[in-house]
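Lab notebook, bench 4. The sequencing result for the construct came back, and we need a structural model before the next group meeting so we can plan mutations. Quick request posted to the team channel:

Model the 3D structure of this chain.
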Amino acid sequence: MSGSRSQTGDSKSVTQFVLFGDSAGDVVEWRKVTIEPGGGVTYTLGAPDHTAVIVAAGAPTQLPEDGQPYPIAALVSLTVVEQSQGQNPTEQTYDMTGMTKGEVWIYRPVSLVEYIGTEINADWPPRCECWELGQLE
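Done. Here's the predicted structure in token form:
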């Protein structure tokens, strides 16, 4: 997997992550995140930890430089599909400019071949002689 971690205490200005271009299908993990988009609404995500799949990201307020830290609030919004235990999946859009605290990880699952450049095959040891149940009775 590739990605990075973002963290903020009381200031959302230090919140950063690495942007990977088209984000649909990327995974977002929330830990003790508070988002206050206004109008008296507050979202608390990741208490305990919470994972969702990104389906869209709002147009950024600034252009990222490839592989460089990027303020998460510049994304403006993340639309995710998430599911809580015992409930059906739901789609939700979060206003990231209202994130006031917490940690966010965004990463893209990649295949082993893409990640390390080769496939790993397991070769089982040759079959050895053994007794089967009932042979020693």
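The first helix runs from residue 112 to 116.
Will bring this to the meeting.
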